[in-house]
User: What shape does this take?
Amino acid sequence: MSNNPQPPEISPAQAFTDASASVADYALGEQHPAEALQQPEPPRVKAGFIAAYMFAYFGLNLVMLMPALFSLAYKVQLVDPHDKDTSLGLVIGLGSILGLVFGPIAGALSDGTRLRWGRRRPWIIGGLVLSAVGGAIVAIAPNIPTMIVGWAVCQFAVATIGAGFNPILAEQVPSAQRGKVGALGGVAASIAGIGASLFGSFLTGNLVLLFLLPPLVFALGALIIVLVIKDRPASGEDRQPVSTVFTSFYFSPRRYPDFALVFLGKFLLQFGFTFFSTYQLYFLLERLGFTAEQAGQSLAAAGGVSLLAMMGFAVLGGFLSDRFRRRKPFIYLAAALIASGLVVTAAAPDFTLFVVGGTLLAAGTGAFTSVDLALATDVLPEKDRAGKYMGIYYLSSGIPAVIGPIIAPLILAIGGGSNYPALFVAGAILAAGTAVTTWRIRGVR
Assistant: This one.
């Protein structure tokens, strides 16, 4: 549906899962447990700070999700109606590479920023400006290559914003409140995921506003959050050599097979999310005969149903997983629900069955995210280097979000083109593979 996965350094192509489910990833992405023990706890935050954080988080997710779920697909089918499937994949896939690569670098540079204004504020504001520039380029782009450039600027902007925004939870909020604030951030992200398609459906007559509304909304949130946070310039101890950023992502799968299997499981699952979220609009246009406006409004309505299913399974799964001290059964359930949802959607002859499939997919997303991070942390190879390995783990969703849209047109071409059922079934098969990788994990029950 329209309320995706995954976080900051969340790639926009992770549309379905990242809007709602990856709030935990987003919250913990810059929080290194080993380092947190060495730093004093910040004071408790008040309601005003939480409201500012939620609104800024809503705006940031709107920047990421409105193009990924609606705007890009709508613009591509205007620019290249005959090859829109391939062109959309190229725009999202190639345009997202820059953000994926620059994200870790931006984080390291942000940690070492020594400006008097602080080390986080300049990145948030700088990224905001870049997101408006990128959105304007995409809006006025006369062809696909120009759209790729514009989307690359947008992804560069998201990585820049993330370098300043991602650490806020760990640096500004005490550990006793992080769960609450993170959960409320997840609600804001989910609302942004639902609103992305709805807002887009009302702005199809104005392409410039279609792509500039998200940066405008985030501008207000960014202004509030930079005034609320207590930022400081970096000290010498905060600096990390950029040359060490990418070498820190290496680990030996042979030496740490359980962690490698957890990584591979999420990697496979993410393809199903990416295939669905990238092409759900075209499915409604081609298979069900919707107009773009009808599709956007319908996706927003269906997203509300999906959100309830996802949140219910996430809360219940997290509670039961902790109570019975089991992780793997919930991954099996998630893989089954997600694969079933993709198959049902692939065969959907009408919107009702499409909603059923999307709801199954959302329920599976909730079940997965209820134990996702817990499973990963249970098999961390070196507990005192949790930051490194969680950074590696987040790539399990970032990489498919880049290469998935590039691969998708090859599957869509089967049988003459626009074969969305084949694409969704392929995603279901990959998602089912997560059950196999989970079964082979030996260190967790």
Remarks:
- The chain has 16 helices and no strands.
- Confidence is low (pLDDT under 50) at residues 2-38.
- Residues 126 and 160 are 7 Å apart (CA to CA).
- The two ends are 31 Å apart (CA to CA).
